[in-house]
Design a protein that fits this description.
- With 253 residues, this protein is mainly beta.
- Strands 1, 2, 3, 4, 5, 6, 7, 8, 9, 10, 11, 12 and 13 form a 13-stranded mixed beta sheet that branches. A two-stranded antiparallel sheet has the order 14-16. Strands 15-19 form a two-stranded antiparallel sheet.
- The longest helix has 16 residues.
């Protein structure tokens, strides 16, 4: 009888002390082209997401760290928490802070670009021995296993939050995907010889047609009628070589 009682007490004790399995629930946000979005996380951190950006984060951070995953561009205003570092993972890099303000850009085919507006930020990358500690108005880029840093005006990297497009000697090849995300259009260049031409400009709350390097034209007869507008980059070598822009059509779902 005593043996059975002991076994029953053991099983009951085991049942009482067993802890439930906690599953972390994640949220993924995808900001469509032509849109921007702002959100506040469970710790009070505010994140502004640029067009065409994906962010994955837990509904609630655990006790040890705060970690999110970014694909695109976002500005982070991280709530201070000395006991829990805030970590942003991209495909290539890791950004670690305790509480600060910074802009992070990570898109396929581009260098990861970190720009600090306030505080201190640790920037690392897989297969790269460098670990950079950046302060306000410092910027670091990572590509092909190498990191570079420089002193910049951080406001230039956050101009997109104020509705500003800034092109500082960017090539047409670099500008086209930026315009596609910003205006939710599909741009087709019919003359690849102009893709490395450089352009400069600063525009605030500008329509596609009003951007000085874009001039609205009537589409030629061989352009499908579903294209509502066409444009060309007003560059000397490009005047007779249109770059057509049309509204991006939904693929449905």
């Amino acid at each position: 009888m005593s043996i059975l009682s002991a076994a029953w007490l053991y099983l009951r004790s085991d049942k009482i002390t067993a802890e439930p399995i906690v599953t972390t629930r994640f949220v993924q946000i995808e900001v469509p082209f032509g849109k921007k979005q702002k959100l506040i996380l469970s710790d009070g951190t505010t994140i502004s997401l640029n067009s065409g950006t994906k962010l994955r984060y837990p509904e609630k951070f655990d006790a040890a760290k705060r970690e999110v995953t970014l694909d695109g561009e976002a500005f982070f205003e991280v709530s201070k928490d000395p006991k829990r570092p805030f970590i942003v993972q991209t495909k290539n890099t890791s950004t670690r802070v305790l509480g600060t303000r910074f802009n992070l850009l990570s898109r396929p085919g581009q260098s990861d670009m970190l720009t600090v507006e306030e505080g201190r930020v640790q920037f690392t990358a897989a297969n790269c021995p460098d670990t950079l500690i950046l302060k306000a108005n410092m910027q670091s880029s990572y590509a092909a296993g190498k990191m570079k840093s420089s002193t910049v005006n951080s406001e230039l990297s956050t101009a997109w939050m104020e509705g500003q497009l800034i092109f500082d000697n960017k090539t047409i090849k670099q500008v086209i995907p930026e315009l596609e995300r910003w205006y939710n259009v599909k741009i087709t260049c019919h003359n690849t010889a102009i893709l490395n031409d450089q352009v400069r400009g600063k525009f605030k709350q500008a329509s596609l047609a009003s951007v000085y390097m874009i001039s609205v034209l009537q589409p030629p007869s061989n352009i499908p009628s579903k294209i509502r507008r066409s444009a060309y980059i007003d560059n000397r070598s490009a005047k007779n070589n249109p770059v057509y822009a049309s509204p991006k059509l939904s693929t449905g779902g």
